[in-house]
Amino acid sequence: DAGVIQSPRHEVTEMGQEVTLRCKPISGHDYLFWYRQTMMRGLELLIYFNNNVPIDDSGMPEDRFSAKMPNASFSTLKIQPSEPRDSAVYFCASSVWVSEAFFGQGTRLTVV
Amino acid sequence: AQKITQTQPGMFVQEKEAVTLDCTYDTSDQSYGLFWYKQPSSGEMIFLIYQGSYDEQNATEGRYSLNFQKARKSANLVISASQLGDSAMYFCAMREGRSGNTGKLIFGQGTTLQVKP
């Protein structure tokens, strides 16, 4: 398996634009997590899914953020409109219940 | 609610010596898992070691071992014979069992380890 695949690896966008981050989890994994990493706030859990169903989105900072998982092999995290304070590295991770989570390479988002 | 605390923002260790990275956790669940991850300067998150709450023995993986003290709610990572390549950020993480927040995986703030030659 190729591991968790995230795209794009880097994204630079202007304030106010819509940004969509994509994630392909490892085949057979039933959990998918979205994290945001910044120097100030560390590694924050934004939302996670189990069997494509969102279980806990309490970490989503505002209504500008939304996440979907239309099927077991794909998830998106969307920010609209984007703001400079959204600049961070966004990680997607997947796991089966009893195992460790495997992380993608991350998407470095810069909003100017 | 789940909580993970890593009180050491930064640590130094001499090459070839052992180092302990501290982690304490809080949960009301009886079933949970504890993990350690390494994040080198390149940014990827690398899984190191896992300890289940019902495991009686401390987990070990090569030079990594987890000092699990359930009553004290601590899960310290011990790295033996440190190498220059161990310089990285280390994160402690926890997942609660099905009777709690099902499958939620949260991380501590991390400890930066620098290995001196």
Detail the topology: elements first, then pairings.
The complex is a heterodimer of chains A (112) and B (117).
Chain A: E1 5-7, E2 10-13, E3 19-24, E4 31-38, E5 42-50, E6 53-56, E7 65-71, E8 74-79, E9 88-95, E10 102-103, E11 107-111
Chain B: E1 3-5, E2 10-14, E3 19-21, E4 24-26, E5 32-39, E6 46-52, E7 60-61, E8 64-69, E9 74-79, E10 88-96, E11 105-107, E12 111-116
Parallel strand pairs in B: 2-12
Antiparallel strand pairs in B: 1-4, 3-9, 5-6, 5-10, 7-8, 8-9, 10-11, 10-12
Explain the overall architecture.
The complex is a heterodimer of chains A (112) and B (117). Chain A is an all-beta fold. Chain A has no helices and 11 strands. Chain A is globular and about 40 Å long. The mean pLDDT of chain A is 95. In chain B, strands 2, 5, 6, 10, 11 and 12 form a 6-stranded mixed β-sheet that branches. Chain B has a 4-stranded antiparallel β-sheet with strand order 3-9-8-7, with no helix packed on it. In chain B, β8 and β9 form a beta hairpin. The model of chain B has no long low-confidence stretch (mean pLDDT 92). Chain B is mainly beta and 117 residues long. Chains A and B meet through β4, β5, β9 and β10 of A and β5 and β11 of B.
